[in-house]
Design a protein that fits this description.
Pfam families: NAGidase. By secondary structure, the protein is of the alpha/beta class. The protein has 16 helices and ten strands.
C-alpha cells in the first residue's frame, strides 16, 4: 500500500499564522509522522493579490527558515501561488507567466522544492471561458518545474467539490485528465463537508485519478468568532480512496493540533480508529496535566459546519446538559454546570501550554460567564443571571474582517449554542421554574 501524503494546508482566510506558529506546526507534523505542509494562506498578499511581486527579504528569510526546518524534519514544504483572485491577464500571458516563473524561481533558490497552483474561488463562468488558458498555464508550469526535485504540481481548480459539478465542470475536468505529475485537489461533496467515500469515487470518474483531499476542518474562517474542539467522527468509510489528505486548520494554530492529531490517527489505522480514545489522546498531547479538564470543556465548542452536516455523529454539543434540560432536571443541570466551571478553573490554574492558553482563554472565560448565567437563572437570581450573561459578551477575539486583507476587528466570541438557548428559555419562562 502506497503511503498517503498527509499534513496541513494553511489555506484559510483571516490573520495569517506567525512565523513561530508555522515553525511549531512543522515540528508537530514531524512529531506525529505527518509529511506535508502546504503554504497557501489566503491573506498572505504575496501568495494571493500581490502574486506578481517577489517576496521582500524579511518574508523570504522566514520562508527559507521554514523550508530548511521542513527538510530536516522530512516534511514536504509546498509553496502555492494564487493568480486567480487578482486574476492573471491572459491577454498579456507571456509577461504574466514569466512573473510566475520568477516567483517560483525565487522560492526554489531558498530551498523550496515543491509547488502548487490555486485557482479556487474564482468566477466559474470566466474560468470556463478561459479553460484553455488554464490548461496552458498548468502545462507551462509543469514544464518549468520539470527540473526541480519534485516535478509534481498540486492544483486547486474552480470546481473543487461535488456540489458544483455541472456540464461546464465536466468539460473543465476533461481537459486535465491524464496529465503527468498533475495532482488535483478536492474538498468532497461540498466546500465544508464530512469525508464521504462516494464523493471521492465521483472525483475519480471526473479526473481519472484519486483525489488529494483539502479537508475544511477545523478551519473557522467562516465562523471567525468561534473555536472548534470536536471529536473527529466525520467519515463514512474506513477505506481510503484518496492520494493525500491535507487539513485546513483554524486561525488558532495550537488548538488546531487537536484536530490534526485525530485525523492522523484515523489515517494511520482507519479500521481500528476509536474516536473518543483518540480525542482524549489528542487533548493529552496538547496539555497533559489539564487534559481531563479540557475534555469536560470541549463539548461546549462543537459547532463547525462539518459537525452540523454529519448525520451519524455520536458526540453532541453539551449533550448531557441538553438532555437534563429536556427532562427538566434542574438539579442535574446545576451539577453539570458546576463540573464545567470547576474544569475551567482547574485549567486556568494548571495549564502548561501557554500558546494554547492564549488562544482559548477568551472563549473559556465567555463560557464560564454563560454557565454562571444559566445557573443563576435556574436559581431564580435573574438580575445576577443577566449580569453574568452580559459579561459573557465582553469577551472578544481579534480577527480580520471578512473580505479584508488587513482590517482588524475585535469580535465578541461565541460558545455553546445549547447553553445560549437554555439561558434564553429560562429567562423567558421564569414562572415555569
Amino acid at each position: 500500500m502506497t503511503e498517503i501524503k498527509k499534513g496541513v494546508i494553511e489555506g484559510f482566510y483571516g490573520i495569517p499564522w506567525t512565523f513561530e506558529q508555522r515553525y511549531s506546526m512543522i515540528n508537530f507534523l514531524s512529531d506525529i509522522n505527518m509529511n506535508q505542509y502546504i503554504y497557501a494562506p489566503k491573506d498572505d498578499p504575496y501568495h494571493n493579490v500581490k502574486w506578481r511581486d517577489l517576496y521582500p527579504d524579511n518574508k523570504l528569510n522566514e520562508l527559507e527558515k521554514l523550508a530548511k526546518l521542513a527538510q530536516r524534519k522530512n516534511i514536504n514544504f509546498v509553496w502555492a501561488i494564487h493568480p486567480g483572485q487578482n486574476l492573471i491577464d491572459f491577454s498579456d500571458y507571456k509577461n504574466e507567466i514569466e512573473r510566475i516563473y520568477k516567483k517560483y524561481e525565487q522560492l526554489h533558490n531558498i530551498g523550496i522544492k515543491s509547488f502548487a497552483l490555486c485557482m479556487d474561488d474564482v468566477d466559474q463562468n470566466k474560468a470556463y471561458e478561459q479553460r484553455e488558458y488554464h490548461l496552458q498555464l498548468v502545462k507551462n508550469i509543469l514544464n518549468f518545474i520539470s527540473d526541480f526535485e519534485n516535478r509534481e504540481l498540486l492544483f486547486v481548480h474552480p470546481w473543487y467539490n461535488q456540489s458544483w459539478i455541472d456540464d461546464k465542470a465536466c468539460s473543465y475536468f476533461d481537459l486535465f485528465k491524464n496529465i503527468k505529475n498533475l495532482k488535483i485537489m478536492w474538498t468532497g461533496y461540498d466546500v465544508v463537508a464530512p469525508l464521504r467515500y462516494d464523493a471521492n469515487e465521483e472525483f475519480i470518474k471526473l479526473a481519472n485519478q484519486k483525489p488529494n483531499i483539502w479537508f475544511n476542518w477545523p478551519v473557522n474562517d467562516y465562523k471567525r468568532d468561534q473555536i472548534f474542539m470536536e471529536v473527529f467522527e466525520f467519515f463514512d468509510s474506513r477505506s481510503l480512496n484518496f492520494d493525500s489528505f491535507l487539513i485546513n486548520p483554524m486561525n488558532q494554530a495550537e488548538l488546531s493540533k487537536l484536530s490534526i492529531f485525530q485525523i492522523n490517527e484515523y489515517l494511520i489505522n482507519p479500521s481500528n480508529y476509536k474516536a473518543i480514545e483518540v480525542f482524549k489522546k489528542g487533548l493529552s498531547y496538547l496539555d497533559k496535566d489539564v487534559a481531563d479538564d479540557l475534555y469536560l470543556i470541549a463539548d461546549s465548542f462543537f459547532g463547525s459546519d462539518i459537525y452540523n452536516r454529519e448525520e451519524n455523529k455520536k458526540y453532541l454539543e453539551d449533550s448531557r446538559i441538553a438532555a437534563a434540560f429536556k427532562a427538566r432536571d434542574y438539579e442535574k443541570i446545576i451539577y453539570l454546570i458546576d463540573q464545567k466551571l470547576e474544569a475551567i478553573d482547574n485549567y486556568e490554574s494548571n495549564y502548561s501550554n501557554k500558546n494554547l492558553y492564549n488562544e482559548v482563554i477568551s472563549f473559556f472565560t465567555s463560557l464560564k460567564y454563560l454557565l454562571k448565567a444559566a445557573k443563576c437563572a435556574i436559581n431564580k437570581d435573574y438580575y445576577k443571571a443577566a449580569d453574568f450573561y452580559n459579561k459573557s459578551k465582553e469577551c472578544k477575539v481579534r480577527i480580520y474582517k471578512e473580505f479584508s486583507l488587513d482590517e482588524i476587528e475585535d469580535r465578541v466570541v461565541k460558545t455553546s449554542s445549547v447553553l445560549e438557548e437554555i439561558y434564553k428559555k429560562l429567562m423567558e419562562s421564569k414562572e415555569d421554574l
